Amino acid sequence: MSIIDLIKSRRNIKAFKPDPIDEEALLGWLEAASFAPNHRCNEPWELLRIGPETRAKLKHKSDFWGAPVVIALVSKPGATGIERDENVMAAACFAQNFQLAAHEAGVGTFWSSIGGLPHNRELLGVAEGYEVIGVFGIGYPAEVPIAKPRMPISAKTKVLP
Ligand SMILES: Cc1cc2nc3c(=O)[nH]c(=O)nc-3n(C[C@H](O)[C@H](O)[C@H](O)COP(=O)(O)O)c2cc1C
């Protein structure tokens, strides 16, 4: 698939098959994700592999739609507000790289923001200053939703003199 088709066909998956994900492949997508742009090459992303006990405690309303793998992605603190924002941006780039790498292999991802809630941060052991980018369900999609339409890019573009 071309990169354009890959980007356009990735969806936030809300129904997974229970089939397991190959560990080596998963690590390969995460390694690939590390090639995301990041200021000063500080690689501000960190991962939390969520085990069954922690997953149950998170009490996600649909239990991550039955995804066989759940991983939280956090970004490191910054010395300044700007650094903190840059770390979040770089980690979000990591997230999409990962999603697209998995998608190319036919594996879907679900992005949840529940990890940012104070009690979930505590449950995940996220230290102060770290930002939770998302908690991701990962697995083979049982259903792929239709893409929500996007606005034409011209409506999002201002031309400056
Ligand atoms: C920072 C961030 C947080 C998100 N949190 C949630 C969430 O908590 N629950 C959810 O269903 N989707 C969440 N999403 C996914 C969006 O809802 C989804 O990307 C959007 O509906 C567009 O659908 P698509 O990804 O299939 O194109 C999140 C996406 C981002 C970037």
Descriptive overview:
The protein has five helices and four strands, in the order ααβαβαβαβ. The chain is an alpha+beta fold and 161 residues long. The chain has a four-stranded antiparallel β-sheet with strand order 1-2-4-3. Helix 2 (23-33) crosses helix 4 (81-104). The relative contact order is 0.24. Residues 11-12, 111-113, 134, 147-148 line the site of flavin mononucleotide (FMN). Residues 11-12, 111-113, 134, 147-148 line the site of flavin mononucleotide.
Brief rundown of the structure:
Helix content is 35%, strand content 16%. It is α+β, with helices and mostly antiparallel strands.
Output the keywords:
NADH Oxidase; 4 strands; 35% helix; NADP; NAD(P)H_nitroreductase; Nitroreductase-like; oxidoreductase
Q: Name the bound molecules.
A: flavin mononucleotide
Rounded radius of gyration (Å) = 16 Å
What's the CATH architecture name? 3-Layer(aba) Sandwich
Extract low-pLDDT stretches.
Answer: none
Q: Tell me the CATH superfamily.
A: NADH Oxidase
User: Care to count the β-strands?
Assistant: 4
Principal-axes geometry comes out as globular
Distance between the termini: 38 Å
Separate helix tally: 5
The whole-number mean of residue pLDDT values reads 98
Count of structural domains: 1
Strand content: 15-25%
The CATH class: Alpha Beta
| CATH overall fold name | NADH Oxidase
| Class from helix and strand fractions | alpha+beta
Identify the strand order in the major beta sheet: 1-2-4-3
Q: Quick one: biggest sheet?
A: 4 strands, antiparallel
H/E series, N to C?
HHEHEHEHE
Proportion in helices: 25-40%
